[in-house]
Specification:
Strand content of chain B: 25-35%
Shape of chain B: globular
Strand content of chain A: 25-35%
Number of strands of chain A: 25
Order of helices and strands of chain B: EEHEHEEEHEHE
Structural class of chain B: alpha+beta
Helix content of chain B: 10-25%
Distance between the termini of chain B: 30 Å
Oligomer: heterodimer
């Protein structure tokens, strides 16, 4: 398994660099040869310090990739500036050059050009706003809120657009939002605009598109939904998280960047000796996008509801109870694999599991298991 | 009125402008020699990585010189529009950069070492 190289870009000087562009230049590496993935961890208001960040000298693949994210405590909650870390660039959103680059959890305020050579770029769990250019041609956009983007907003995504909310209320965009996702699959997403004559979804014709919402009747797929300003947490103040009381929330439609729990910043509270034996220090203080907490007595005794779901390390343990419940690697969100060896897995993982994880369950997972997990996910 | 320019020294990146920022004192050991010496006071300077040189411009703001980080886009090619050339090794500027990793100049003086890609 690839090992992590953590590069801390902290504006206050307490990390490895104070500037992302400088860090990317100085740390250039062939990650495939090194069998590693590199995390650029940001902290502070890093807007308008970089013209563009260029991965010209990197070699990557799908798992030995580059991840740009904030410190765990600063994962965006969907409200601009609400956490301490904000990023923004003066020109290209990122110069990926075809390398595997994931922007995760960032409060991303502004850019003026599309991703350069974007085919393996992904945006996950992020808040993207004030971009005077599109998010175009990238591989995936997942659980992300976009607002006040220019032109066509999100278009030509080749992979998946899942739980993406695109809102235009500032009349910056001249046209559509979730536009032309022809090659990719568009699911559980929301397009909302206030611009007369603009359309939320255009040329989004993939047969697999489903469970999308719009305010103009253009959402593609069989199970289309309608969205209104009242479905958002606070439309007037640009909080476009879907309200938990909205019918869309129960259907997992729209981005949800609200932390699943409060008071946890990556620490794992250990109450009993049995958990010490089971975790072996390999659960990292990664961003919390969900909580594994469950009712099976064996695990309840050991974890006390505070294991981070977005885990970049390996969960390895020795006590039999936990071995029975979860075995394998939960890697970087969505790209990982859950190897389920026994049926008790559905009992053990209760929390917000990304939709795409369901697809990654082992072949021997029964339909009942998948349904259970999906249902649990909606419960949040 | 002043700003800082961090200039790359690594092979393949030599002379490329990494950042133009407001003056700051919190650089890390990976960025400037002064910060490296603070972190590793007992190490010989020969171990210093020399990833970057710091050019302190005394009479321009970050906003004035932001254009120095503009990209040059030609079809599928992208590069930095502006870059630095190194002073000759027999100049006082070169010696100062070699010994301290940074230099303070007016922009008129710095401009002698900046080139534009066309």
């Amino acid at each position: 398994m690839a090992t992590e190289i953590l590069v801390r870009v902290y504006l206050d000087g307490s990390g490895d660099y104070t500037n992302l562009r400088a860090a990317v230049i100085a740390e250039a590496i062939d990650l495939v040869a090194a069998d590693s993935y590199m995390v650029f961890e940001l902290k502070g208001d890093l807007r308008n310090t970089d013209s563009f960040v260029d991965f010209n000298s990197y070699t990557t693949d799908a798992t030995r990739n580059v991840i740009i994210r904030p410190i765990a405590a600063d994962y965006t909650d969907g409200i601009a500036g609400n956490t301490g870390t904000i990023y923004g660039v003066n020109t290209f959103l990122v110069v990926s050059r075809g390398e595997h680059v994931t922007i995760d959890g960032l409060d991303f305020d502004g850019w003026s050009s599309d991703v350069f050579q974007p085919v393996n770029t992904r945006i996950t769990n992020s808040l993207m706003y004030n971009g005077s250019a599109n998010i175009q041609g990238i591989k995936d956009v997942i659980n992300t809120i976009c607002y006040d983007l220019a032109d066509q907003s999100v278009l030509d995504v080749a992979g998946e657009v899942t739980r993406v909310t695109v809102v235009n209320k500032a009349s910056i965009s001249s046209n559509n939002f979730l536009y032309r996702s022809v090659s990719g699959v568009l699911t559980n997403s929301v397009g909302y605009n206030d611009v007369v004559g603009a359309t939320n979804y255009t040329l989004s014709t993939n047969a697999a598109n489903d469970f999308n919402a719009s305010n103009d009747g253009t959402a593609p797929g069989t199970n289309t939904q309608t969205v209104a300003t009242t479905d958002f947490e606070d439309y007037a103040n640009n909080n476009f998280n879907i309200k938990s009381t909205s019918p869309l929330f129960a259907l997992n439609v729209g981005a949800d960047l609200v932390p699943a729990s409060s008071g946890i910043s990556g620490a794992i509270t250990q109450n009993t000796q049995s958990f010490t034996q089971s975790a072996s220090g390999s659960i990292t203080s990664e961003p919390i996008t969900g909580v594994i907490s469950q009712t099976a007595s064996a695990f309840a005794q050991s974890a006390t509801g505070s294991a981070v779901l977005n885990i970049s390390g390996v969960i390895s343990q020795t006590v039999s109870a936990f071995t029975q419940s979860l075995s394998g690697t939960v890697a970087e969100q969505i790209s990982g694999t859950i190897n389920q060896t026994v049926s008790s897995f559905t009992m053990s993982a209760v929390g917000r599991v990304p939709a795409s994880w369901i697809d990654k369950l082992p072949a021997n997972t029964t339909w009942a298991d998948q349904t259970a997990i999906s249902t649990i996910w909606t419960d949040k | 009125m002043a700003c800082h320019i961090l200039v790359g020294n690594k092979a393949g990146d030599s002379g490329e402008i990494s950042s133009v920022t407001n003056p700051k004192e919190n650089y890390t050991h990976n960025e400037t020699l002064n910060a490296w010496l603070l972190k590793y006071p007992s190490r010989p300077v020969t171990e210093y990585h020399r990833n970057f040189s710091l050019v302190k411009v005394s009479d321009k703001t970050k906003e004035d010189l932001a254009y120095l980080t503009d990209p040059l886009v030609e079809g599928d090619l992208i590069s930095n529009k502006w870059y630095f050339v190194s002073p000759s090794s027999n100049t006082s500027e070169w010696l100062e950069l070699f010994q301290t990793g940074e230099i303070t100049k007016t922009f008129a003086e710095v401009l002698l070492y900046i080139r534009e890609r066309i």
